Amino acid sequence: MTAAPAGWAGPKLLGPLFDEIAEDWRRRYSEHRLRNLNRIGQKAQAKLGDSIDDEGEVPPRIAAVVMDSGSWCDAEVMSEYFGGILAASRSPDVADDRGVKWANLVAGLATYDIYLHYLIYEAFRRLFIGRGLELGKDTVQLASRIYLPAADVMTVIGLEPSDETWDAGWDLVSSALMALQRTGLISNSSALGSAGLLRELLMADIPEDGMVLAPSTAGIELFLWAHGHRHAVTEILSESLTMEAVADLRRVDAARELEVLVQQQRERLERGAVARNTAAAPSE
Question: In this structure, are residues 251 and 123 in contact, taking their beta carbons and an 8 Å threshold?
Fold first, then answer.
């Protein structure tokens, strides 16, 4: 068994304490855990790019949490998030260990919770990119809600919905949604329900059962850290910010802005009213 990093520069990423940390891994980790650890290191280095040659290191507290928890995780989305937190934590200031709170938060969530978080904020950025929104305001976050079809979410995260598996998939997605609300990673204004219920509740052209989600400041921050950034929340919509799509993580292409669906229903109702008035008008 070896703790030598495979495919990433351990001392460059973690700093002068790497040898001591690696010796601890060698004594305690199985080959399986070391493979997962190496994958996290590779992702962190990829997110850093050439900046890994700049002065800096990852505070040991953050490295300990990321590797102890992340080495147990086989899912791609977990290694992406842990790798991003490592990359964002690399700094010339070894006392700057803000990343430990994000590492602990990810470690305390289920894989489906993290995948749903990724799908929500990937869609949010894709739909709103380039807009100068003041995302720190609750009113702006509420106006930036998005809709995701439940069946598409289940398919993307590997639940493959069918008549036989729908209830189980719905329970898992519902549990993930509640976990994100409980930890403040989405707004409490989010909702999951049937198409009919959501249409009535939101006065929007909701095409099928699904979820309507409002971003939160904490949720945006985690998404940025997961991509190796620790910028202000408004930067999530910056076109100049590099946030490459992850090849092994799919997205929900049918995601829509809620306000667009609200406008569609408004226009449909107006057309219906005009048609009824026309039909009711006396002919000359």
Answer: yes
